[in-house]
C-alpha cells in the first residue's frame, strides 16, 4: 500500500467479517498473549469427566469445538443471531445442541440439569441462573474479561475514561457466593496486546463491541486517523488485555 493508505485500511477493516468468535482474520496484524492457565485445556479436562454440560455464550462455538471428548449431553447457548448459525455448523460434529437465548435470564433449562457449566468471555455472568441449573456437586468454569481490558485502545478513541466500574474479581466472588456457590479457584492475568495497523483496530472495534460502545468508522474517523498516524510514526499500538479465571462449585 501507499505511504498514506489510511482509506484503504479503513475499508479493509470495515469489510472484514465479524461473525463468530474466531480471531483468525487478525493473524499477522495483531497479537495477544495467552493466559497462563490454558482455559481450553482445563475445559476439555472437565468435559471429559462430565455427563451433561452447558457452554454459555459460545459465540461461534470455536473454543468448545476443540474438546476431544464431549460428554453424552452437550448444550451451548448464544444470544447473537448471526453466531447461532455459525455455532450450529461448528459444533455439529460434537453432537452438541445450540440454543438461541435472550440476553437476560432465565435460561431455558430445568433446575439441576448440568453437572458442568462453562463460559469463555461471557457478556454477563448470571450467577443465580448458573447455580440453579447446576446439579449438587457440579462446577462452573469460566475465563472472564477483567476490569479495564484494552483500556489504552478505548482511550485512544474516546479520550480519558473514569476507572472501570465492573468486571472486578471481588464482586464476582461475592456474587458467586451469594448465589450459593463456593469459589475454588481464582487467577488473574494481564496480557500484552499489539495492533499493527488501523485495519485490525477497526475490525477489533466492530467485533469486540464493548471496547467503544456504538463504534462506527464514520463516527470516529478523526480519532482513527490520529491513531493511524501514530502507528505509522511510532510503530504498533500496544494495549493490555485483562483476564481472570474463576471456578465455583455448587455444594
UniProtKB/TrEMBL annotation:
Which protein, by its recorded name, is this?
Methyltransferase domain-containing protein
InterPro entries, per the entry: 23S_rRNA_MeTrnsfrase_RlmA (IPR052939), Methyltransf_11 (IPR013216), SAM-dependent_MTases_sf (IPR029063)
Gene3D superfamilies annotated for this entry?
Answer: Vaccinia Virus protein VP39 (3.40.50.150)
What GO terms describe the biological role, i.e. biological process, of this protein?
Answer: methylation
- GO terms, molecular function: S-adenosylmethionine-dependent methyltransferase activity
- Methyltransferase type domain sequence ranges: 54-140
Q: Does the keyword Methyltransferase apply?
A: yes
Protein's UniProt keywords contain Nuclease: no
Provenance organism: Micromonospora auratinigra
PANTHER family, alphabetized: METHYLTRANSFERASE, METHYLTRANSFERASE TYPE 11 DOMAIN-CONTAINING PROTEIN
Pfam families recorded: Methyltransf_11
| Superkingdom in the source lineage | Bacteria
Which keywords appear in this protein's UniProt record, sorted alphabetically?
Methyltransferase, Transferase
